[in-house]
Amino acid sequence: MKIAVTGGAGFFGRATINAAEQAGHDVWAFDTSLGHDVLGKLDALKGADVVIHLAGVLGTSELFDTPETAVDVNIRGTLRILEWCRHHNAAYVGISMPDPFPSVYTATKVAARRLTTAWHHAYGLRTSTVRAFNGYGPHQAHGPGHPQKILPTFARAAWEGRPLPIWGDGTQTIDLVHCDDVGRMLIDAAAHGDDATFDAGTGVPVTVNQLAEFVLEVTGSTAGVEYLPMRPGEVPVHITATGEGWDRLGWKPELDWDRVADTVRWYRDAR
Which residues form the NAD-dependent epimerase/dehydratase domain (predicted)? Predict the structure, then answer.
């Protein structure tokens, strides 16, 4: 297949391009770092049999400061990619997330997912969606201008001798999934055009406290943790993949603590 990946230079984008190359596909990135824009000209998608749409603005509390930008990029941008796929006979693969959070980002992703279903039913567009849980792996951005994702936030704090910040009491659960597994699932999802959803998660719940203890152990940090009020857009919930779509693919991501440890050490070396 010929596959274009919007947001292809980003965290999941790199993993998706690697997975496509390993599977023998012709793949290229459509990304702002290359001068592309989902709200601008889409000429760089030309020739794609499939568009995997990962481009968007991320954040939890951060997007309350720029909600119009989030709506514009995450919703109108998705609509423009769906329309491009419709008019160029290309399949569409989108990325979504669990949706329990009262955040701007969640609202935009829910809307984008509903647009995907609408275009599938109204126009027969071949669509599928990967629901990504708590992704981790090397190269996940961290620092000013980037949302505070849990593993890089914990790892950087631990290596710098600072307490690990935990928003809430830490008993809430997450589902850690390696970026390479998300990339592989996005490629595999392209073969299913009936608007199916695939869970990119392991189905293994991990508490935030449990992950913090693991990071402290890997880094040897004695700084401990710091409990903070939950941020706007967050509520204390338990998130775990239920296995939607795994039977179609014949495989599922697995929780691998060695890969988690390798990622923690990557943030030491990348400082």
Answer: 3-195
Burial of 28-59, coded b for 16+ CB within 10 Å and e otherwise, reads bbbbeeeebbbeeebebbeebbbbbbbbbbbb
Sign of CA pseudo-dihedral 265, 266, 269, 270: negative
Cα-based distances in Å from 213 to 36, 71, 154, 184: 41, 37, 10, 29
Helix (H) or strand (E) holding 249: helix 246-249
Which CATH number do you get for residue 98?
3.40.50.720
Which tokens sit at 44?
Answer: 């760089």
By C-alpha distance, which of 86, 34, 31, 70 is closest to 53?
31
Distances (CA, A) of 256 to 174, 200, 259: 14, 14, 5
Tell me the pLDDT band of 146, cut-offs 50, 70 and 90: confident
Q: Per this entry, what is the length of the chain? A: 271
Structural domain that includes position 142: 2-269
Specify the pTM.
0.96
- Read off the pLDDT of residues 167-214 as tens digits, 9 standing for 90 and up: 999 999 999 999 999 999 999 999 999 999 999 999 999 999 999 999
Around Cβ 237, how many Cβ atoms within 10 Å?
Answer: 12
Spatial distance between the Cα atoms of 1 and 186, rounded to a whole number of angstroms: 13
Structural domains of the chain, count: 1
Sorted by sequence, the CB contacts under 8 Å of residue 84 that are 6+ apart come out as 42, 45, 51, 90
Written as one letter, the residue type at 69 is T
Long-range contact list for 64-67, CB < 8 A, 24+ apart?
Answer: 64/103, 64/104, 64/232, 64/233, 67/104
C-alpha of 267 from chain center: 19
